[in-house]
Design brief:
Layout: E1 8-15, H1 25-41, E2 45-51, E3 55-62, H2 68-85, E4 100-104, H3 109-117, H4 119-122, H5 128-138
Antiparallel strand pairs: 1-3, 1-4, 2-3
Helix pairs in contact: 1-2
């Protein structure tokens, strides 16, 4: 797209199916590097990635021609295969359907990056369910609790 200039920042959140605690410290860095590669190969800019045992946060700079749902679908599909092929866990690994995507301005970059990089500390005080519903409410997203994830916390 010649002569198209933009700066769009999106924070994406998605979880392991049933919020199973399957992402372990001994291989999460490899998973995060793999996902970073997917984002970069799709022409987008990874700003931060981190998570806990049951979910991840990705903060990216995206181009206007990027369809977030297509990007997330590719990340989930490819990383799911990557986890299985590398036998990182002996349990069935799948990502939950759906995701959250929230936009931020340039002035909020440092705050969001710090938040994502401090996920493990953050979740000592707040569950994923509390965090996710908090994002939906903060961003005034209409949602039906019946259609949120199946919470197993």
């Amino acid at each position: 797209m010649a002569n198209t200039y933009s700066q769009i920042y999106v924070h994406i959140i998605f979880a392991v199916k049933n919020r199973d605690a399957l992402i372990h410290l001994d291989w999460e860095d490899e998973l995060f590097k793999y996902i970073t590669g997917i984002v970069q190969n799709k022409g987008q800019k990874m700003l931060a990635i981190n998570g806990t045992l049951n979910h991840i946060h990705i903060f990216i700079g995206i181009k206007p021609d990027c369809r977030i749902s297509d990007l997330v679908r590719e990340i989930k599909k490819s990383s799911n295969t990557y986890v299985k092929e590398n036998q990182f866990t002996r349990f069935p690994f799948r990502w939950q359907e759906g995701f959250g995507a929230f936009s931020y301005s340039d002035s909020q970059l440092d705050i969001v990056i710090r938040y994502i990089l401090n996920q493990k500390e953050h979740h000592k005080k707040k569950t994923f369910q509390q965090e996710y519903i908090g994002f939906l409410e903060k961003f005034k997203v209409d949602y039906n609790p019946d259609y949120l994830f199946e919470w197993n916390e």
